[in-house]
Amino acid sequence: MLDRAKSLADIIRKHEDIHIVTHIDADGITSGAIAVQALSRLGKNYSIEFIKQLDPSTIERIRDENHELVWFTDLGSSISNSSLSMIISDHHMCTDDSNSFFHLNPHLFGLDGSIYISGAGVTYLVAKMLDSNNIDLSALAIIGACGDLQEHRYRRLVGGNREILKDAIDANVVRVETDIQYFGRETRPIHKLLQYSTDPIIPGISGYESNSLSFLYEKKILLKDNSSWRRWIDLSKEEKRIILSGIAQRLLLKGFGHNMVKKLIGEVYTLPREEVGTELHDAKEFATLLNSTARYGYYDVGLQVCLGDRDKWLKKARSLLRGHRQNLVEGVQYVKGEGIKQRRYLQFFHAGNGVRDTIVGIVTNMLLNDSNIRNDIPLVGFADKNSREVKASIRTTQSLVDQGVDLSVAIRKAASHVNGVGGGHSIAAGATIPKGEEERFLEALEEEIKTQLSSSKDVL
Ligand code: C5P
Ligand code: C5P
Ligand code: ZN
Once rounded to an integer, what is the mean pLDDT over residues 387-406? Predict the structure, then answer.
């Protein structure tokens, strides 16, 4: 992969004007920011655009713009044999290796792009090949990886991400600690952190604010310091230990076993150059802040924060974050209100205009992690994209992936069956399909998942 990164860097050096095309999520924004910094440090001219997905008409439009060189980051793996002058640093599933000499992608090296390295990670490798002084950009690659939940499975970054982490530690831009895995260590009041906990779910506490408060009260944990809510980072080691053992006890009492308890703790990644107790100090929280920007069309906001703005753009990002949180809570409530429809091999909901197409994936993920919703079959979430198209997001569990489910393959087939486009990773994938084709799409998807499960059983 490093050799391939070097080939891409060599191509960049031969061009003066480079157009970056990237994705609207946290990994896409950090990828774009790494590319921008690397090019501007080289003195190249650059432009950047953010897109929801790379469909054939977008590729055609970019081709018509006649850029000297296009750099696709965190997307592009679906382009086959285009006549574009381009390089690609992506981590999505790809099968076609006809573009391979200018395409850096873990899948081309037999590595799993959902865990081994993110879009920001592969883009960082190219930046590092352009100039070894770019190792400070490794912090952005760690944020991108966390945005794509790459640390989630093993409770630590592995593979290529681990190599990047070494750079980040050497450059003193990231620190690693072992701590609770729940979201919001730096900014959420403790009872909120526990209330919103998922994976592992805390029986009787996840989803219940009053139970979360009484649990902390029982453990004699002070909730406030003067008049402000205490956060996880404000707790002493002893207080953290008391809470963690209380959660562990609850899990064991409910029969969840030690593997579930082990999931409570893992690595967390902090950014020592940022202010403690802010969204920027923790890589996961930083990623969520970024997800609140470009997914709502505010591309510059996330990008400028990644490029170092801590003033007006950060302020704007924080106000978008409040809206984003609200939208996620409302999105989950909306779907629960409407109900999730069950089929044999999958379950689904159609939010119509009730949830934005750009966050339906996050909502789907949250629902699959909800203790009141089954997770033994994949969950598909639909949301209207416009009057002609529908966005589909599909999420599953590691356990089903281990049993042979590969959503990226299934969704690609099902989407093309109805003249749509789709792709992604084995555990999380998405598609855009024509409106009105939802039923045919679900049928094809279900058939594919059924085949995947039964053929893996044959092998076993
Ligand atoms: O487009 P991209 O590859 O950047 O997004 C990855 C997606 O995979 C994210 O939506 C992330 O939430 C999802 N994912 C997941 N569970 C994992 C790993 C990734 O839902 N264990
Ligand atoms: O949009 P969503 O979060 O559901 O996407 C899940 C994964 O599928 C992401 O990695 C995304 O980049 C990918 N995806 C794709 N092609 C699409 C839609 C989503 O590769 N048309
Ligand atoms: Zn990504």
Answer: 97
SS3 content of the chain, % helix, strand, coil (to 5): 50, 15, 35
Poorest-confidence range of 44-48, 91-95, 297-301, 405-409? Answer: 91-95
DSSP state of 25: S
Cα 23 to ligand 1 centre (Å): 13
Number of domains in the chain: 3
Could you tell me if 108 and 94 are in contact, meaning their C-beta atoms sit under 8 angstroms apart?
Answer: yes
User: What type of residue is 312?
Assistant: K
Q: How many whole angstroms from 408 Cα to the centroid of ligand 3?
A: 14
Domain boundary among 233, 263, 293: 263
pLDDT 10s digits, 129-167: 999 999 999 999 999 999 999 999 999 999 999 999 999
Any domain includes 88 = yes
- In percent, the amount of the chain with pLDDT more than 90 equals 94
| 151 and 23 within one domain | yes
Q: Is the CB of 425 under 6 A from ligand 2?
A: yes
Closest atom of ligand 2 to CA, residue 75: 12
Cis peptide before 434 (omega within 30 of 0): no
Q: Choose which residue among 90, 148, 183, 400 to substitute to test ligand 1 binding: the one with the highest number of ligand atoms within 8 A of its C-beta.
A: 148
Residues 213 and 160 placed together within one structural domain of the fold: no
Place of tokens 């209207």: 384
